[in-house]
Amino acid sequence: MARSGVRPGRRTARTDVAGSHRRLAVGRILLVVALVMTAGKLIWVQGFEASALSNEAERQRLTRAAIPAQRGAFFDRSNNVLAFSSESRQLYANPRDLVQKQDEAHVKNPKEPTGEQYKREIARFVHERVGAALPEQAVYDVLSSGQQFTYFGPLVDPAVAREITEKYPQIGAEYRAVREYPADDVGANIVGAAKWQMDERKVKGLFGLENTLDKALAGRDGVKVSDTARGSNDLVIPGTERELEAATPGSDVQLTIDSDLQFRVQNQLASYVAESGAKGGSAVVLDAKTGEVYALANGKSFNPGDDPATWAKDALANPAVTTPFEPGSVNKVITAAGAIEHGVVRPEEVLQVPGSVKVADSTVRDAWPHGTLPLTFTGVLGKSSNVGTLMVADRLGEERFNDLVHRFGLGSTTGIELPGESAGVVPPRSSWSGTTFANLPIGQGLSMTVLQMAGMYQAIANDGVRVPPRVISAEIRPDGTRVPRPAPEPVRVVSPETAHTVRDMLRSVVQDAPHQQGTAPSAAVEGYQVSGKTGTAQKIDPACGCYSQSQHMITFAGILPADNPRFVVGLMLDEPVRNKTAAPLFHDIASFMTQRYQIPLSKEPAPVQVLQVP
């Protein structure tokens, strides 16, 4: 019998309440779990991922850019500027987008110009601001090209570029540094050249001191950041630029050269090379006491400010430093200095000099045919007798001669810090044969650069002490601190007495007395005593591997003034066909220097020396 009031299959009120409590408990548990997970995620994000997310947001919001460092300048010894950097801008555009967006703007607002009208408007404005260097039609053609991106026009002044980009934001202007050379080609073979490099976004030295000193000159770029608008990596929000790291300017470099003398020597050398029909030539002027280079020139030069495409390749080299040659008779100063130093001969001693002499299996002759001549040793130098020189060299001996060759700096680089310097070639003593000593004393069988040649005579001018030449005077740091280059270590070659005696003997070379004439009277400078030495060296004929009878290197080394040396000049001409001496070129350079540096006249003319006994 069924119970009254109870319906099968239905919950009681108590049962419903219990279910609701369970559901509520589960809901609360789920809610707590969700809150815990949310809190955990928040803690994770804020605690562990905060830095990474912040950095990511920063990267999306900020644009980093380099602050270009100012490249250091070059100055001569009187602080005349030889090279410096200036700032300019390169214009660019996106012609395709420019026209498309302007046409869209015109459709929305007919008052806006069409893309075609806008191109002409921009072209006219840019031409008016830049000038004749950028014709209006040229700008229009660029904007009509349909290119996605293009640079156009010459480099422009930053103020002009700013005026253009402010009026027409569709035209951009990119930073460029420009290396300028106000002296044009003066000293170009020393300074070298530097140009803007797109891949590195800076000026880089290509060759010369611009290249070897590039690190010091370049300085260090700084860093700046700026906020960019959302969705853009280029649109900088005005007023948000700030500097993270300041740029450090490069150091300036002061050279020892005198740009006025350098200009004169370059031009006189180039003219003389052309006049003589020579293939080339080099000239070096040294301070007789310090070895500082006042001028260093070659027959060909270039303007480092010009487009590199216009540079002649053979004008970029610096053969006065890089290209050795057989010097010929200028090398006889070694035998002369050694013979006087070791007392094997006196200047006035008379030598009976035959027309030729046999050394081992080699026969050596003088440049002019003659029978036996009674020449003083001074006359051997003054008339440049090969035979007389070898007679005295035999008295000096191979070992002492070899020692002096190296003391005079041959066979080693000078350390002048110019790129590509050659040490020349001196055969090692162990390789000498019987004929070697028939060649070396008269300047064959070994080679040297014009710089080394001038250095030999600097030792004679400086009372027997050779001071290796230098061309860099000092580095001027960005804070103005001047850091002089350390003076080179001097080398005692011969005694002061020997140097003075040889210097006096070398005055005979420019002597023009009757029957006592030297080989280079045209080198004389009125009012001044001059010491010097001519040289003529046969070149090697590649066809036979022997000495050529028609191709010669002509040299001259001179000291001014001989009685109180101030300067040494070394000259070389490569295969002149119309002049057989460089003496007139020395005269012209020396005459200019006497005026330029107000060199006092010699107290008395050089006494006439006996070269040949009657």
Automatic annotation (TrEMBL):
Pfam families per record: PBP_dimer (PF03717), Transpeptidase (PF00905)
InterPro entries listed in its UniProt record = Beta-lactam/transpept, Beta-lactam/transpept-like, PBP_dimer, PBP_dimer_sf, PCN-bd_Tpept
Q: Where is the signal peptide?
A: none
Give the residue spans that cross the bilayer. 24-44
Provide the primary localization: membrane
Residues covered by the Penicillin-binding protein dimerisation domain: 67-227
Asked if the record carries the keyword Transcription, the reply is: no
Taking every annotated instance into account, which residue ranges of this chain make up the domain Penicillin-binding protein transpeptidase? 281-589
What are the alphabetically sorted keywords of the record? Membrane, Transmembrane, Transmembrane helix
Q: Which SUPFAM superfamilies does the record cross-reference, listed alphabetically? A: beta-lactamase/transpeptidase-like, Penicillin binding protein dimerisation domain
Which compartments does it reside in?
A: Membrane
Keyword NAD on entry: no
What's the family? Belongs to the transpeptidase family.
* Designated name of the protein: Penicillin-binding protein 2
Q: Which organism is it from?
A: Saccharopolyspora taberi
Q: What is the lineage of its organism?
A: Bacteria, Bacillati, Actinomycetota, Actinomycetes, Pseudonocardiales
